[in-house]
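Good day; I would like, with your permission, to put a structural problem before you. What I wish to show you is a protein chain and, alongside it, a tokenised description of its three-dimensional fold. Please examine both parts with care and let me know of anything in them that strikes you as inconsistent. Thank you for your consideration; the sequence and its tokens are set out here:

***
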Amino acid sequence: MLKQWAVDAGLPAKPLYKVTEIAKATGIAVSTLYGEIDAGRLKARLPVGRKRGMLVACEWFDEWMKEGIDGE
């Protein structure tokens, strides 16, 4: 789901996206995405040695979307 939306938004297909890229591809606000990450509902990781630039794997985003849609 995310990878296709990203490609449709003009982003390259890749396994991990920055939160800002996800916002661009989906229209979901960056603050909403970070809120979901902070709450532990959306899985993300910070690359070693970095202080900012959280990355989200496509499958993590897709699982988060499915849980939100299914209400699990």
About this structure: The mean pLDDT is 93.
